[in-house]
Amino acid sequence: MPKPRIHLGFDFSYTHMGGRWRMPGSWPGRTFPDVAMFEEMARIAERGCLDLLFSGDGTGVPDTWRGSRDAAIEWGVSWPRQDLNPLTVAMSRVTKHIGFGLTYSSTFMHPYYTARLMNSLDHITNGRIAMNLVTSTRKSDAANFGFNELMEHNTRYERMEEFTDVCRALWDSTEPDAMRWDRETGRVTDPGKVHNVKHVGRFFKVEGPLNTPPSPQGRPVLIQAGGSPRGIRASAYVADLVFGPDTTLAQQVKHRHALDSALTDLGRASKGVGILWQTPIVVAETEREAKTQRDRLLTAIPPEAVGAYLSYNSGYDFSTLPERFSLQEIQQQIIAANASPIGFVHELQMQLGETAEVTRDTFFEHGLRAATSYDKTVAGSAAQMADHLEEAFEATGSRGGFMLGHTVSMPKDLIAIVDLLVPELQRRGRFRTAYSGRTLRDNLADT
Predict the structure, then answer these.
(1) Which domains are assigned to the chain?
(2) pLDDT at residue 295 above 90?
(3) Cβ neighbours of residue 256 under 8 Å, at least 6 residues apart?
(4) What pLDDT shows up at residue 292?
(5) Helix (H) or strand (E) holding 422
(6) CA distance 20 to 147
(7) Dihedral, 9, 11, 12, 17 alpha carbons, nearest 10
(8) Confidence of residue 338 (pLDDT cuts 50, 70, 90)
(9) Res 226 pLDDT > 90
């Protein structure tokens, strides 16, 4: 009996940031935002038959550390960025099969605009678009959309669920066979197959219909990455594919069970919703080579950049920390500010103890490893990494796969994934040797 197949995405969100752009093996003679880098990345990934290329996104500049954006700008911390739409179009024009995951905030965006954009991109790419919906947790993003404070945690998810309802209704507002394009009669569309949405909700009021042809996939694929209990319930409501955190295997198993329970409560089949577990990875010919490459992460950024990264993603200015403090007190302040309750301090609590007291120096020693993803980066030979992925895949229900990424240098580490890891997974019957589907949704359903 064939083994269940692993699906693989590649997260390129940080390939040009956090010092990675200057690591050995990075793009020679090129710097962001040279579009040729992204086109080459897409070609490499498609050569490896990966399911999709993915990027997170944000519209703010980190300014939490010392109340200033200077450190982030100086050291390239979540800066600079560009809109992913034109980059996706460019990558789609040099590939035929690989999918693309773009990130948008349901906290700030309007569903009509976003549904129309995703539908249009789905046509340009011939059915290869996925939208990753996020609930924004950073004050600098909120400020750029006119908000003085972050929206309350649960309210953000309520807005996301309504946002999804509207998008789905808009994508369904023109039936799949509505378009005629009849050259003899001149008829374009059957009017009886185009429907209003007439949505009136707590957050949005949308008449509809969407004024675009129906999506090649029926609907673009929806991705969501909620990790808190409320976030997991939202991902069960929203997602076709879940983006899971790079936590311990025991925590991933617990997350899978919680998602299955939430899906069952909603009447959805849990078998049909896979999780791609975020997996920072370095693959090389030998374990020693891989670990040497991973060790370079510890030289990527200086302490100021570590502080800027941690503060931005936690919504708390860690430059104000005393010489010794309680992790529990800091976490309570982060939650009170409506920032993410499952960030770095929460992870440190799980590692050191919920009520642990630490020194400032100890905190930032752990912080360097967190900001560079060093502690979570798995490194080894192709056989070792295939063993690691197979174990996690089976333990979490053999549904979904992995979002590889946070590599040390590009394109070196992506080439190693494609030339070393993918053939090993193929040899084990765990990964496709060719694309079988016409769309991203088709390929994700290939098990």
Answers:
(1) 7-300+374-444 (3.20.20.30), 302-371 (no CATH)
(2) yes
(3) 244, 275, 396, 397
(4) 98
(5) helix 422-427
(6) 32
(7) -160
(8) confident
(9) no
